[in-house]
Every structure is written in structure tokens, then in C-alpha cells.
Amino acid sequence: MSQFRGCCPSRRLQKALQFLSVCPTGLLGPGPFLMAFLKKYLLPILMVLLAYYYYSAHEEFRPEMLRGKKVIVTGASKGIGREMAYHLAKMGAHVVVTSRSKEALQKVVSRCSELGAASAHYIAGTMEDMNFAEQFVAEAGKLMGGLDMLILNHVFYSPMTFFNRDTDMVRRSMEVNFHSFVVLSAAALPMLKQSNGSIGVVSSVAGKIPHPLIAPYSASKFALDGFFSSIRKEFAVTRVNVSISLCILGLIDTETAMKGTSGVYEGYAAPKEECALEIIKGTALRQEEVHYSYMPWSSILLQNPGRKVMEFLSTRMFRWDKLKSNQKSP
Ligand SMILES: NC(=O)c1ccc[n+]([C@@H]2O[C@H](COP(=O)([O-])OP(=O)(O)OC[C@H]3O[C@@H](n4cnc5c(N)ncnc54)[C@H](OP(=O)(O)O)[C@@H]3O)[C@@H](O)[C@H]2O)c1
Ligand SMILES: *[C@@H]1O[C@H](CO)[C@@H](O)[C@H](O)[C@H]1NC(C)=O
Ligand SMILES: *[C@@H]1O[C@H](CO)[C@@H](O)[C@H](O)[C@H]1NC(C)=O
């Protein structure tokens, strides 16, 4: 399940209640009767639901959960990926990191060793090459002797501009941000099934709502939701105990994002260190979605109850028994 992320929950709750107490008048502007009804029943109900939402907290995260775990982080030469590698190292995990730049990875790996990683290795290469993606997973598995967690994080950022019929940009975006994620997951699945492992898929608010000026990027992030949320359902039916956590991030203060958005998009950026930690926590806790953003409301607004209802209804229409007897499970 998704969880509200960012600063401490109690502060969030306070803000939420504050918002709720002004929201009906502001948004609905209804007559006095409806208002009275809302004040009397709806607000208390919403508050209870909200409180439940926060405090029905699932298992608590403990850094020891990662001690000795075998973890891959892609796109770990800088930004959020590098911060994830550092957190994992401090928690005592084995890490294998990757990206294109060997020099940067070397530094990340030696810092990981200093920070206390059980082991730290890098394998450099480009995720535009699907053969590399596949071989990378096999080699990383050999280096660590298995795999518990696969964190898919690397990204090709298309420049912020109107779509000017540059279809090559869309293809590249789909290859690096989507297709290679699929290839890496497929290659890692046998190992993850053995370890009851987890996949963390780093996506974006732009993978939940349309974002003008970054159509190729947005398309690739939407694709992640379509693919990974679909196979999560298959895993549930076929009893594949590998969790998939789709991480929905708002603007984060990485160098690339700050440069890329400067002068085009204004918005507060959340810190990459905390963001990295929240991705690891959510993935370790096997949450379906992890939300992390400076905007406290985005997590609740992106829940999309209509989708949940439709998912429930459509899942019931499949003839699972028949399918399972005819097909090989993943
Ligand atoms: N920062 C934000 O505002 C924000 C918001 C929402 C979601 N996200 C998501 O968070 C994740 C990390 O973003 P970030 O801002 O931390 O990015 P970043 O700092 O630019 O890091 C991107 C990483 O991907 C690697 N990479 C790029 N192209 C690659 C390729 N072709 N093959 C292999 N590796 C490649 C880069 O290393 P090399 O250059 O060495 O290859 C680098 O390690 C992404 O999935 C992004 O979509 C970020
Ligand atoms: C995976 O989960 C199953 C069922 O809970 C359990 O029997 C098995 O021992 C677990 N395997 C590992 C490696 O944790
Ligand atoms: C799936 O794996 C997790 C992590 O090892 C374990 O806690 C859980 O009990 C397993 N669930 C099932 C249904 O096997």
C-alpha cells in the first residue's frame, strides 16, 4: 500500500486537518444545509479515515532489514541513485551499482565501502543496450551470490521542450526509461523469486498525470505503471512472492533536474537524500506505491479511487483457473 511520505507524519496530519476544515467552504460553496451536513458528518468521517490512513501503519522500517541484503541500484553514479547506494552501504547491504560513467561509479563504490557496505561493486554500461542490461544482472548476481532487491532508477531525461515531431527522442526515452526496466526485471526474476525479493521502480508524478514539455519522459513513466502494475496483479494470482514498488516522485533537487527545469518550471524541490531513503524504505516494506514529494497533497490526490474500483471489478472477470492450467506462470 502506498503511504504518505516526506516530513514527519504528525506535522502532515496537522496540515491535513487544517486543510480539511477550510476545504468544503472553499471548494464546494454549497447552501447552508449541505454545509451543516458536511460539518456534522463528513468532516469527522474524513478525519477518522485520514487518521486511519496514517496510523494503520504497516510494519515499521528498520535499517537492519537491509543488512546483508544483495541489492542492485541502476543510475547510481549521481543524483537519487547515488544517495540510495550510500544509504544501503550504511545499512550494511551488498551493492552493485551501474551507469555509463566508470569514473563516477568507482568513486561511489569506494565511498560505499567506507560507509560500511557488506560489499560494493560497479559494472559500467549503457541501458540503451538491452544485451548489456541482461548481462549486467547476471554478473551482479554472480558477484553477490543472488539478489534480494532490484532498484531501477536510471533515466534518460528528454529536454523540456514542445514536441517538435522528434520521434527519436520518444524512442530513446522508451528504450532507456521503460524497455530496459522490463529487460532488467525479467533477467532478475529467477533470483528474486528465490529470495522472495523486491523490485523498486522509480517513476514520477509525470507517470501519473500528463506533463507538457516532457511528453517522451512522461510517456515512458506512464508505461512503467502500465507494465509493472499489471505484472504485480499476475504475481498475486500466480503466487510469485516478488514485490513491486512503484515510486512516484515529485521534483527532487538533483543537479540534472535543477538544470533541466531551470527557467521553465517553478516548483519546490525535495531533498534527494531523504527521497533516496524513502524509496529504500517503501521497497523494503513491499509497498505497492511509494510517494515522495514536496507537495504534501500529491500522494492523496494521486490515489485515484476510480482506478481502484475498476481494477477490482476487472480483476474479477478473468478466468484465472482456466488460464493457470493452460499457461506457464512467470
Ligand atoms: N530529480 C527529479 O526531480 C525527479 C522527479 C521525478 C522522478 N525522478 C526519477 O528519479 C530517478 C533518478 O533521477 P535523478 O534526478 O537522480 O537523475 P540523475 O541525477 O540525472 O541520474 C541519472 C542516472 O542515470 C544514469 N544514466 C543516464 N542515462 C543512462 C543510460 N543510457 N544508461 C545507463 N545509465 C544511465 C546516469 O549515469 P551516467 O550518466 O553515468 O550514465 C545517472 O547515474 C529517475 O528515474 C527519474 O525519472 C526524478
Ligand atoms: C520465501 O517465502 C516462503 C513462503 O513464505 C518461505 O517458505 C521461504 O522460506 C521464503 N524464502 C526465503 C529465501 O526467504
Ligand atoms: C513473501 O516474502 C516475504 C519476504 O520474505 C515474507 O515476509 C512473506 O511472508 C512472503 N509471503 C508469502 C505469501 O509467502
From TrEMBL:
Which BP terms does GO give this entry? Answer: steroid catabolic process
The family database entries (PROSITE patterns) matched by this protein are listed as: ADH_SHORT (PS00061)
EC id: 1.1.1.146, 1.1.1.201
Which parts of the chain span the membrane according to its record? 16-35
- Indicate where this protein resides in the cell: Endoplasmic reticulum membrane
Q: What class of enzyme is it?
A: oxidoreductase
> What family name appears in the similarity comment?
Belongs to the short-chain dehydrogenases/reductases (SDR) family.
**Oligomeric state and partners?**
Homodimer.
Name-wise, this protein is: 11-beta-hydroxysteroid dehydrogenase 1
Q: What is the lineage of its organism?
A: Eukaryota, Metazoa, Chordata, Craniata, Vertebrata
